[in-house]
Amino acid sequence: MNKLxxxxxxxxxxxxxxLAATSANAAEWAVDHGAxxxxxxxxxxxxxxxxxFGKWDxxxxxxxxxxxxxxxxxxxxxxxxxxxxxxMGQTLTGEAWLATGKFAKATFSSDEVVPTGEGTYDAVxxxxxKDIAVPMTLPFMLKVDGDKAEAKGGSTLERQDYKIGSEIxxxxxxxxxxxEFDVVASKK
Length: 188
What we know:
single chain, mainly beta, Lipocalin, globular, Lipid/polyisoprenoid-bd_YceI, Polyisoprenoid-binding protein YceI, signal, TTHA0802/YceI-like_sf
C-alpha cells in the first residue's frame, strides 16, 4: 500500500519537473492524466502485484536553466489506489495500510532539481505518507518537443518507513516497492 502511494507520488513528482523543464523560464504545465501513468509493483510471495493511483495533482515551477531553484508539490489521493489484485486493492485503504480515512493525501515536495546528465535529473525532496516524512531523491528522464513534454522515471520505496502493512513480514509481501511513472504534459 505504502509503495503504491509512494509510487504514485514519485511518478507525479517526476513527471511534473520533467514537463516544466521545457522552457527557458519558469513555466506551468498541464498534466494529461489520460496519457500519464503512475504505477507501482510489489512482490507478494511468487506473484507480482501491480497498482496505480487514479487521482493526483502537481504544482510545478521550474526554470531549466536553473533547475536547482525548482519547486514541486505533488498531492496524491490515497483512496484512489487500485491494483490488479482486487483483495489487495481493498486492503490497501485500511487502517494498517494507507489509512485513507485518516490520511486522505500523500505528498512529495521538492525545492531542488539537480541535472545528472543530458535530459536526466534528480528531484530532491520529501515524501510524506501517513504524516511520516522521509527524504527522497527521484531520478527521471525528460523529453521536450515544442509545447509537449514527457517525463519517465522510477524509484523504490520501503513500505516499513511509512508503517504501511507493518505487521506483514517481507517474506509475505516484499518490503521494497518499485514505482514507475510516465507523465505527459502540455505547456499552459
